């Protein structure tokens, strides 16, 4: 039996390192990240299935708290390619990247420099058993409220709030469309 493996399904088991390809703009390091999410099917309370939103957080490499996957945006990739790569490297998930949540400027806790951070929702379609930073990070699915509680960065909490607000307004718009029929 012959098994064909496509390049798009392959995952390098090594994270990119170094900053020689790192993007900077006006002296600020450019970083991108994702809020990986899925819907957990819960016990139906009526004739419809109940769907509960879960987000995936990862441990910091330094072991101090939890956060969403993020990292440097490099010169040889688009912003969404960088977001997808960082999410695979750090959290071991793949999915569909959706419309950008925004841009935040913040000061690094470890370096005396400012960063620009861009965040995207990523609707998870695949969770990998092996990924580049598996030995260095823990990943955990949790509710939005739990994630907001444990996330160590204010700007990531703000991105999470924007994401939830977007989902809530989309659900409201969907309900209005159904009601108009």
Structural features, described:
- By secondary structure, the protein is α+β, with helices and mostly antiparallel strands.
- The protein has one domain: Alpha-Beta Complex (Nucleoside Triphosphate Pyrophosphohydrolase).
- Helices cover 26% and strands 34% of the residues.
- The chain has 3 helices and 9 strands; from the N terminus they run E-E-E-E-E-H-E-E-E-E-H-H.
- Strands 1, 2, 3, 4, 5, 6, 7, 8 and 9 form a 9-stranded mixed sheet that branches.
- The longest helix is centred in the last third of the chain and has 27 residues, at 154-180.
- Mean pLDDT is 86; it is low at 1-10.
Summarize the structure.
The chain has 181 residues and is an alpha+beta fold. It has a single domain, classed as Nucleoside Triphosphate Pyrophosphohydrolase.
List keywords for this structure.
181 residues; disordered N terminus; 9-stranded mixed sheet; 34% strand; 26% helix; alpha+beta; Nucleoside Triphosphate Pyrophosphohydrolase
């Amino acid at each position: 039996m012959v098994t064909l493996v496509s390049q798009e399904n392959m995952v390098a088991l090594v994270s990119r390192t170094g900053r020689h390809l790192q993007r900077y703009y006006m002296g600020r390091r450019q970083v991108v990240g994702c809020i990986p999410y899925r819907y957990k099917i819960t016990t139906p309370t009526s004739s419809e299935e109940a769907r509960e939103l879960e987000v995936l957080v990862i441990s910091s490499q330094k072991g101090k708290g939890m956060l969403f996957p993020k990292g440097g945006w490099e010169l040889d990739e688009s912003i969404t390619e960088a977001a997808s790569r960082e999410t695979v490297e750090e959290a071991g998930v793949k999915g569909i990247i959706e419309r950008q949540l925004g841009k935040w400027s913040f000061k690094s806790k470890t370096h005396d420099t400012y960063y620009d951070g861009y965040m995207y929702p990523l609707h998870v379609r695949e969770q990998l058993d092996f990924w580049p930073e598996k030995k260095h990070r823990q990943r955990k699915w949790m509710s939005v409220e739990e994630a907001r509680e444990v996330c160590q960065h204010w700007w990531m909490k703000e991105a999470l709030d924007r994401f939830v607000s977007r989902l809530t307004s989309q659900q409201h718009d969907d309900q209005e469309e159904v009601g108009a029929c």
